[in-house]
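Hey, can you fold this one?
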Amino acid sequence: MSGLTMSKQVVEMLVGAGILLFGVIFVGFAFRGSNPVAANGYRVVAVFSDASGLVPGTEMRVAGIKIGSVIDKQFDAEAFEAIVTFVIDDQIKLPTDSEALIEPDGLLGGNFVLVKPGSERSYIPPGGRFSATRGAVNVIDIIGGHIFDGTGGGT
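Sure. Predicted structure:
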C-alpha cells in the first residue's frame, strides 16, 4: 500500500470512530433523561382515565415549578383506569382538594402533571390520593375538531 492510501484509511477510521462515539453519547443521553426520579419525598397516588405520555421521571409541577415526579404507572383491569404513583418533595404540602391534570408539554408529544392546589386546610397525607384528576388531552383530536367542525371544510 502506498502512504497516501494508508493515511486515507486512517482518516476514515478516525472519522468513523468519532461518529460511533457521538452516537453512543447521544443514545446515553436519550435513555438517561433530563429529570431523574427524586428519591426523597412522600408518595401519593392519582387515578386517571388516560395516563398517556406519563413515564417514570415525568415532572409534576405547581405554577411551573417541579415539585415531584412519576415513579410508577399501573393498570387497574377492573376499573380500566391508570393508577399513577408520584413522589413529592417533603417541603410541599398539597391541600386534599387539589387537582392533578395531565397537560401537554410542547408540540412533541410529552406530557407533565399540573397540580392545581385546592383551598382545604387539610393536606394529602403520605400514601394518600388526589380526589380530582383529568387524564391526558389528545392534541391531535383537539386540532382535528377545530379543523373539521364545519368552519374549515371537510365532511
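The chain is about 25% helix and 30% strand. Let me know if you want another pass with a different chain boundary.
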